[in-house]
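Teaching assistant here, posting this on the class forum so everyone can see the example we discussed in section. The complex has two components, and the goal was to see what a joint structure prediction looks like when all of them are supplied at once.
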Amino acid sequence: MSEYSGVRGTVWFRAFTGHASPMIGDPKSVLTRDAPLGSDHARFLCVVPDPYARFPCVRHGEVGLEEGYTLAARVREVIEHDKNTIKRPIIAIVDVKSQAYGRREETAAIFLAAAAAADAYGSARLAGHPVIALVVGHALSGAFLTHGYQANRILAFDDDGVMIHAMHKEAAARVTRRSVDELDKLAKQIAPMSYDIRDYAKLGLLYKLLRVENPEEPSQQEIRSVQGELVGAIADARTSPVDLRNRLESKEAREMRKASILVRTKLEAQWLEN
Amino acid sequence: MSNNGHGASFINRQSFIELDARERATALFDPRTSRELLGPFDRVESPWLPMQGITPQADDGCVVMKGKIAGQAAVVVALEGAFQGGSMGEVSGEKMTAALDLACADNEKGIPTSAVILLETGGVRLQEANLGLAAIAELMASILALRKHAPVICLMAGTVGCFGGMSLAAGLASYIVMTREARLGMNGPEVIEQENGVEEFDSSDRALVWAIHGGEQRYATCLADALVDDDTPQVADAIRSFVSKGVPPVHRSSQGVLYRNRIDALHTSQQWDPKEFRALWTTTGS
């Protein structure tokens, strides 16, 4: 597990779009651009750190109020634009430290800003847009729920700098009254607690793990190969249901989420009884 | 016992907060129309807690009931704040999501079915970490799918409040109902103080905590749709009225432009006084 560097989002956004700047009127922390991807013109979105952000608690790459509403607006723009035409793919490049932990954010209802972004991504998926999340670095907690977790397909790099989790390790240890060492030991036996992306892959939530030598400095060949994987994920999403059932139907989920599947089966049977 | 709604004197109130999740859920249905699904006798428990030496609960702290509200089919899912802080684990999360999906399927079959979610939760159950987070993402997807057909109503009565990832689920609701004893926010004061220091948020300042996250403030700033007393008939009344109201013309979480403009208008150089903030967001209306 590595520290959050905040550079990976920009690196991959630039690799796919050739640019790394926000759209006019947007905060510097949200990058949006349309660029060719396979035979599509896809919309790419990414949240990056802005050390001079207006809100102090987002200056290290956290997702806050402006980030949530900007993502929402830029995704909704695409839904509106493609209403009567082919639904373009929406690619969320994910490298987010966490949600913003701030008093201003709580006062102005960050929960709603985050919900607005998730609403936009989820609505795009339901409208038929292939929504793909590519986790290139950290994808933590409320930040991942805001940006990426509503995707039809999630891809991640098989790399020590990639981490998907509900809470960073120190805080999780504190809340569960354990030491970081104890937490590490438990994580080795209990896959959902692990901070290792290979353990996360065992949960069946990922579409694919991708190998890149150094995600902070990808080669042209690696970029082309990742683009190819995105194109594959888009094609797969386009021929599948628009809900998230694939996450529970995967081979890995059938093994690791037996309890979820049992809940579904039993609840459905009892629902129909009268 | 008869009830006079808002006129009921304090002494005659039937506290809703003192009820457990099962009693709360039952109280919202039309009399004798509800039945529990996947109840404690089915014993579908968390497989992850015993591996960590924690005693599981036979319903995983999540009660699912089906019945009628205001004469219409409805499902109520209630989290039990007394079990693991109402946290979302694999089983409790899947119960909620699957119940909403079944309601959605009924709507698609032509049986209008609303959902009421009772949230007393700190968010993800950290002992099931990534499966809890995934469950919240899937729950959010199911709320989005269901609320096209029928209202999804979130009720926060207290005293746990609704925090963490589950606050995003609440954010997607068609309607939010709160009491003065309920709180709604993404990060609790203790978490903020831990992450960014006491200067950012003094969690021992209880007045400040309530002035920001409390039901009264959320209602006054148009972030909740109803503020009710801790009185069971009044709570049930509010739920009935929102079930009857149906799907709102536009959901709060889809009004990004309105809120983005509100955020743009805020000065961020210093902390805000919650009272001044209230005046600002009350007058801008919704």
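For the discussion questions: Residues 244-274 of chain A form one domain. The mean pLDDT of chain A is 96. Think about how each of these relates to the inputs above.
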